[in-house]
Amino acid sequence: MVLQRGGSNSSGSKIWGYGALEDNSNAMFECLTRKGGKEQSKKIPVQISSNTWEINLAPQQAGDVCQLQITSGEETITLSDILFGDVWICSGQSNMEQRMGDIIDSEEEIANAASFSDIRFAIVQNAIAYEEDDDLDIILDVPWTDPSNEEYLKNMSAICFLYAKNIYLETGVPQGMVASDWGGTPIESWTNEEVLTTCNVPQSHDPCDICEGCYGEMYCYSVLWNAMINPLKRNFVKGFLWYQGETNGGYGGYLGFNRDYYQCTFPAMIDSWRKEFSENSMTDELAPFGFVQLAAWRPDSLEASFPVIRWHQTADYGYVPNERMENVFMAVALDTYDDKEGYPGNLHPRYKQIVAERLAIAGLNTAYDLNFPTNGPFPLSISMNGNEILITYDKDLTFNNNEFSGFYHCLSNAECDFGVFLNNWTEIGLEKVAQVSSNQIVVILEEEEDFWLSYIWRETPVLTYLGLPIYEDAEISLPSPPWKMLVENSVITYFN
Question: Do 450 and 440 contact (CB within 8 A), yes or no?
């Protein structure tokens, strides 16, 4: 397995188990450090409830390899080859669940991964629980393993594993990835009751209240938090990764109307997970939290629920980290449309490598304090002179409108969120939208009035892989994320 490195001067990761300890129970903790030294210490297991005991381990450095032998009465448990590094919990619905065996160039990717023995992973079995129980046991569909086991790797979350690979290649820190995800599930299933109450999510919308059994028990509020996240909170972890929102955006029908609570439920869920883990382990109170914005889906749809979820994923700022979402990072996935096997609008694009790479780039900045970007170009200000709108960005950019310009305008915020645009601008020339300097775009309209301007505010803005209009003009070329803003005549608007 991998346990989390570091901690306080006296306490790091913990091990716990079930059952009543005998008198004089003890444990021996032996480590071979990365520098070649040997350390040995005796630990005393502590009975923390009638059926649960735990052992606090001393802090270890990245790369230390240890063994823990626990003896109680005539029974002995030995945990060997414990590698210390950074542990991440990966959660969400089907795009997080999407397997390594189901991505572009999967056979080559799996073969190349076999040598990365410092990346280890486990997959939590899908389960539900109607009550919180801190002592609930976690069952693993895939026990701790490394990528030399191809059959296990084929079933591992691609985003989760490939993120770890990118982080490891840059830092050399061993990575322990725990996939705890379930396809088709809403955010309400992954959050506790306190979050749902705080965000005023209507309890009458809970399928378990109004139509028990109609949608499957995994849709019931809080049941996945109770069964698949809460029991992990004694684990000291580096942070969390998340890919979810399709169900709240209307995929699958029923729960789509909870879309407009997502700007509260998602940031509040992050707060809640951090709080629970930090109060029960050495996890930081602001543990890094990375997420993937929703990818493309139906190529011809103007329905705006996915764009709204993307906006809500940033607490309506358009970028992270921000004042509401500190130490949060994200990856844009809107240029990974995948016409899989002739089926237009595949909800699960196979281009997971580029998405994991972008997530890792932002994570290297946010979680590892390395000099990497967190976002592509984002507007600093918008000014309007007559019917010309000048958008100034925070980074130098490239602009390509071969497929479309990316810009839409609506008469109101509500119309944007219903996909009611005055002009879709799918086929325009440079006389309408053009790059006028290294970091400026000019948009020319026929009318001069107040309106809302948006960028790539569409379920599927482009069909071309890596074909969005605006990317950073740099070696690491992250795409500009989606946004919307009120434009008032002759008024300069500054973004958050």
Answer: no
CATH class of 2-83: mainly beta
Cβ proximity of 433 and 404 under 8 Å: no
Task: Select the CATH number that applies to the domain covering 84-366 from these four: 3.40.50.2000, 3.40.50.1110, 1.10.300.10, 2.40.160.40.
Answer: 3.40.50.1110
What digits encode the pLDDT tens for the residues 264-280? 999 999 999 999 999 99
**Is 170 in a helix, a strand, or coil?**
helix
- Give the residue ranges of DSSP H helices in 89-212: 94-97, 106-113, 150-154, 158-171, 193-198, 207-210
Q: How far apart are the first and last CA of the chain?
A: 42
Site of tokens 């980074």 = 395
Best-predicted range by mean pLDDT (208-222, 337-351, 460-474): 460-474
| DSSP string for residues in 124-148 | EPP---SS--TTPPPPEEEEEE-TT
Q: Please work out, in degrees rounded to the nearest 5, the angle formed at the alpha carbon of residue 483 by the alpha carbons of 482 and 489.
A: 145
- Among candidate residues 221, 81, 208, 89, the one with its CA nearest the CA of residue 159: 89
75-92 and 65-72 as β-strands: parallel, antiparallel, unpaired? antiparallel
- 426: tokens are 């799918």
Q: If DSSP codes are grouped into helix, strand and coil, which group holds residue 311?
A: helix
Exposed (0-12), middle (13-18) or buried (19+): which is 389, by Cβ within 10 Å? buried
Mean pLDDT of the chain: 91
CA triple 3-224-160, angle to 5 deg: 45
CA geometry: angle 15, 363, 311, nearest 5 deg: 115
Q: What is the pLDDT of residue 255?
A: 47
